[in-house]
Structures are given as structure tokens and as C-alpha cells.
Amino acid sequence: MNKITQIFLTSLILLFYSSSIYGQKRTLDSIYIVLDNKTELNLAIYNYKNLADNIRTDYTKFLSILSENNDIPDDISYSIDYNPNKKLSIKQTKSGERIIWENNTQKKFQFSNQCNIRSEDYYLKIKFNDLQSLMTDSLLIRLLEAINKIDETNDRLSKTYVYAFQGDKLIKDEQFDNRTKSLDIIFLKGGLGVNLIKSEPIIDISAEIGFGIARKGILKNQYYVSYNLLFDFMEESKTNLNGFLNVGYRRNLSNNIDKPNWLGVELGYLINNQGDLIEKNTLKFGVNWELGTYVSLSPQLYLSNDGKDFYPALRLGIGF
């Protein structure tokens, strides 16, 4: 196996390995609940699978731990943080001014204390004043009732469901529900590339136009058409130009809006040919991984002579 083939295969393995280990949580949908103007709940959903059962198990364990603790302050504001099966902590927080009425307008009620339950599948934030409102079974029962009112949605847009309880009565008005805006985009890109083709270093410039489709607030899919112009300096005092027209697809494997992880495939065809480096009617197949915002790595395979001849290549791209 020659050196360039080894580089090609190693790069491919790294690409697919990286795609399997990369990924962070994202909020699919969320629920906002007001309980008799005494408690507010905000639930961010990361995973719908067994959501109600997971919350029931975690909250029951949380109440069990909390009921055995006598260190909860009753004269200052505090925050409770609970990571299921890992850690529960309580810390003092600063209590600020609470304005409930101003200029003949009722203001949103502000709570003194807060509880945060941080799971791999959800994040539950509870605002309250009286610890007893946190300790009652009715809070869990009402939360699960609201969860059961919604189903996992295949909608591409994230949604916040708004509920209120007055006593045991669940009140919902869909006019208060909020759906995120579409983040689909049309994009233009340009870049430079350094290629290793037939053991020869080749420079290229590229231009790309495409369409990006978002899901649940994160750009997830890109479809594009691009053109690569390769500069071949192998002949003395002459520069040969070879141009590839490509179509491609990328998938964002990350669920973190701040840390995208794009992996894609690309198929190209030689439409401009000069010199002997690349034969006419050559096809190019590549796997593309974006190492960062402006850097990409692409192991490639060139096929010519009706597929009878083929050779690997490698491209390092810098975008702008």
C-alpha cells in the first residue's frame, strides 16, 4: 500500500470516528407552567424518549434527598441544583426588589428561590417562594399532566407550550404558545485548497452556492453546487487549469448550535481539462469534514477511463 493510499484511508477512519463521538444537547421543545401564581416551571426537553418516566424517577429521588436535609435556609433566598444520581447542592442567592404592581399595571410575579434539575434528557427550572410548594406530590403530578398533553413532534421548528393551573384545572391557550422562526438559508462560499494528487501538491480555488435547512433551531442539512479550479504547475513556464463541477450534501452531526460538526459527501466531474495530470472524463468522489469554521479535510477518489483507473487524493481547504 503506497503512502498516499495510507493517508487517504487514515483520514476516512478519522472522519467517521469523529462523527460518532461528537455531539451536544439541544432543546427540542419546552414547556412553561404557572401553578396558582405560586410556582413557575420551565422544562427544556433534550430527549422525548421515556421523558415522563425519567422525570418521575428523578423528582421522586430528589424529594427523598431533600426531605432528609435540615440545612435549607428559611430567611434568605437560595438556589437548589440537582444532577440526578450525582449531586445536590444549595447555595445562597441575592434577593432583589420584587415589583408586583407599577403604573396601574400588574407585573409578572418574581420568586425568591429557584430549583434546577439538570438531566441528560431535560433541564427543569422551578421558581418558588415556599419550600412546601416544591415538596408536594401535586407539583410532579401537574408537570406530568402537562407533558402528557403534548406528543413528540417531527416539526422542524422548536415550540414552547404554555400552561397554567388553577387548583387542579389545567388551562391552555394556544395563542400563548411560541414557535421558533425558520433558520433556513441560502449561502455563498469561497475558498482555497491544497491538494495532494498523484503525489503532486496542487493548489485550487473554489466557489459554492447552496441551501441550508434547519431543524429545531440548528442548521442541520446543506445541499450545494460548487466549482473547483485546480492549478497545475508541473510543466515548466506553463500553468494548466483543471475545473471540476461538483454537487454535494453535508450533515451537521452536532446538537450544539455553537459547535457544528459538518460531515458530507461530494461528487464532481471534470469540465475543464489542461495538461496530463488529470485525464478527460474524470469523476471525483470525496468525503468532506469541516475541522473548524474555516478549515475542512477531504479524502477523495478520482476515477477515469470509464472507472478502470482510479487513485486517491487529499484536500485541505480554507474557506472565507
Structure description:
There is one protein chain. By secondary structure, the chain is α+β, with helices and mostly antiparallel strands. It has 2 domains: 3-24 and 182-319, Porin; 29-151, no CATH class. 17% of the residues lie in helices and 48% in strands. It contains 4 helices and 19 strands. Strands 1, 2, 3, 4, 7, 8, 9, 10 and 11 form a 9-stranded mixed beta sheet that branches. Helix 2 runs antiparallel to helix 4. The longest helix is centred in the first third of the chain and has 19 residues, at 3-21. The radius of gyration is 28 Å and the shape is elongated. The model is unreliable at 7-24 (pLDDT under 50).
Set down the secondary structure blueprint.
Elements: H1 3-21, E1 29-35, E2 39-45, H2 51-67, E3 78-83, E4 87-92, E5 101-102, E6 105-106, E7 113-118, E8 122-128, H3 131-135, H4 137-148, E9 159-166, E10 169-172, E11 178-179, E12 185-197, E13 200-215, E14 218-232, E15 240-252, E16 262-272, E17 283-290, E18 295-304, E19 309-319
Parallel strand pairs: 1-9, 3-7
Antiparallel strand pairs: 1-2, 2-8, 3-4, 5-6, 7-8, 9-10, 9-11, 12-13, 12-19, 13-14, 14-15, 15-16, 16-17, 17-18, 18-19
Gyration radius from CA atoms, angstroms? 28 Å
Q: What percentage of residues falls in helices of 4 or more residues?
A: 10-25%
Tell me the CATH topology of the largest domain: Porin
- Give the name of the CATH architecture of the largest domain: Beta Barrel
- Poorly predicted ranges: 7-24
What is the averaged pLDDT score? Answer: 83
Number of β-strand runs:
19
Distance between the termini: 36 Å
Order of helices and strands: HEEHEEEEEEHHEEEEEEEEEEE
Tell me the number of structural domains: 2
Q: Which band does the percent of strand residues land in?
A: over 45%
Q: What class, by secondary structure content?
A: alpha+beta
Assembly annotation:
single chain
CATH class of the largest domain: Mainly Beta
Q: Please work out how many helical segments DSSP would assign.
A: 4
Inertia-based shape = elongated
Please describe the biggest sheet, giving its number of strands, its sense, and whether it closes into a barrel: 9 strands, mixed
